[in-house]
Amino acid sequence: MWIIVRQSHAQDGFRIAVQHGRDMTATLSGIIPPMITPLRARDELDHAGLERLIEHLISGGVSGLFLLGTTGEGPALGARLRAELVERTCRQVNGRVPVLVCVTDTAFTESLNVARAAADAGADALVAAPPFYWPLGQPEMEHYFDALAGELPLPLVLYNMPALTKTPIPVATVRRAMDNPKIIGMKDSSGNLGYLHQILRARAGRTDWPVLVGDEETLPYAMQAGADGGVNGGANVFPRLYAKYFQAAVSKSGDLDMLHPLVIRMGDLYRNGSHASSGIKGIKCALSLLGICDDFMAEPFERFSAHERERVASLIEEQRSQVP
């Protein structure tokens, strides 16, 4: 069981409160959606939409929520809004599932600020990718994660997202991280099955160091290879589909063959448009079509056009007719 240290700012330094937290290494498995951030305007949360989205996800059987990642537009949100999102989410979740908060930033101190706010709000763990401006060598990355984990008030999950950070986490760095008691697992969003196999071999025999995958279309193959679950954007839209797929993969039930093509088909949400932002736009568009939340995008992006929205509507209707 982790002892979670909560820290908050005071004029005389940090006040530290210690309490028992959940065993995160035992609960970091299954489907943990990278929750989108429902917005009504540039710096304004869609409060009602956020409440509906959280209930939609939990009632869909997800195993946790991951806030402020790529799908959550974390790097595009201001500090005040990020803190509000985490606080409101943790309050509504109220311990029903673990809440993970991404603290990735180019500034070390800003990562710590987000981490402290998350701990104060009641989050369960933190997630960090390498800083996404300066290219880091392996020794520098090892030092960075050791230093970050050493000052964080909650356990840390590594986040490999080379398409956006431009810096993959080397396998040797992951092996080193496995020896750090405050680094408790990894999310791999590289989509590189060769890399994933190396990570899974490196942690062979370790049941206490979960590996999750973010790439939508890698999930079925990753599960077969021994990954512990997925952090998949499409689970925002159809959480029950992904939760059932995970259970079928674990139990090797006959439902796997039926669910497999439906999960793969959800990848089309990411290909509706010619830009890298199409995935996030597609998920937000789908949720707005389902009446769950607004599809306002944080700058520099804008919501889909009417034509693109029609294509998303067709996909959603097709999937709804088949999802059990």
Explained architecture:
It is a single chain. With 324 residues, this protein is of the alpha/beta class. The chain contains 13 helices and twelve strands. It has helices spanning 24-27, 47-59, 79-93, 108-121, 138-151, 162-165, 171-177, 193-202, 219-225, 239-251, 255-265, 278-289, 306-320, and strands spanning 3-10, 13-20, 30-31, 39-41, 44-45, 65-67, 99-102, 125-128, 156-160, 183-188, 211-213, 229-230. Strand 6 (65-67), helix 3 and strand 7 (99-102) form a beta-alpha-beta unit. Helix 3 runs parallel beside helix 4. Residues 1-20 have low confidence and may be disordered.
SSE succession? EEHEEEHEHEHEHEHHEHEHEHHHH
Helix content: 40-55%
The counted number of beta strands is: 12
Rounded to the nearest angstrom, the radius of gyration is 19 Å
Report the span from N to C terminus: 36 Å
Strand order of the largest sheet: 3-12-11-10-9-8-7-6
Mean residue pLDDT = 90
Computed structural class: alpha/beta
